[in-house]
Design a protein that fits this description.
alpha/beta; four-stranded antiparallel β-sheet; 10 strands; six-stranded mixed β-sheet
């Protein structure tokens, strides 16, 4: 699903990633962890083609991201689900409208959009909140809407950047269980998190970054 070969990335002369090489198999669940500034967000941004590396080679879901043409990026992203820490929900749109927004860009019939939105919201336990606006939801509910929006594309790969950063411990564990369920259904999942306690409670393969270097790649929990 993912192959990185000797990836480097710098910002204003500061190296964010230093010669990263790794791969993630299709159907795998993996954590990306490390202290603040370790390079986790840069790593993910490269995977959904928000950034290009300074050097090295990246393959994601069969696409060569280092040679992908600008007009091909949107098509590539249709097979990805990206979940951000700050949710990025559209405040003036309802829950259903937030979820169907990405489907409307694909020109799917309205009936199909509504059906797919209902199914993913039901999976998130939010089918009764479809007419609510984001500001009427709790933080945990907003995060689940963001996940539903990612899932409605029926993606091959989910990328989540610090998805529990705004949640309390109980909601964080619930969210990890949701990600595990999504993974059991066949979707590859990569979760960037600095929460080592969460990794210990829900162990899986974990890549540890520090100052842009890949310093450990093993099955959690860490000692």
């Amino acid at each position: 699903m993912i192959l990185l070969d000797k990836i480097t990335k710098s910002y204003n002369g500061r190296q964010a990633l230093r010669g990263i090489s790794t791969k993630v198999e299709r159907g795998e669940f993996m954590y990306l962890t490390g202290p603040s500034g370790a390079g986790k967000s840069t790593f993910l941004r490269l995977l959904y083609r928000a950034e290009l590396p300074d050097s090295g080679h990246i393959m994601v879901n069969g696409a060569d991201l280092t040679t992908l043409r600008r007009r091909e990026v949107a098509e590539f992203r249709r097979r990805l689900g990206v979940i951000f820490q700050d949710f990025k929900l559209l405040r003036r749109r309802t829950v259903v409208e937030n979820v169907t927004f990405v489907l409307s860009l694909l020109n799917l019939p309205e009936r199909d959009q509504q059906r797919r939105a209902y199914l993913v919201l039901k999976q998130m336990g939010l089918q009764h909140r479809g007419t609510a606006f984001p500001d009427e939801l709790s933080g945990g509910e907003q995060q689940r809407v963001a996940i539903a929006r990612a899932l409605v594309l029926q993606p091959d790969l989910i990328l989540a950047d610090e998805p529990t950063g705004n949640l309390d411990p109980e909601r964080s564990h619930e969210l990890l269980e949701l990600f595990k369920t999504i993974n059991y259904q066949g979707t590859t999942v990569v979760v960037a998190t600095h929460d080592r306690g969460l990794i210990d409670a829900h162990p899986a393969r974990t890549i540890f970054l520090d100052r842009g270097n890949l310093v450990k790649d093993a099955w959690g929990p860490f000692q």
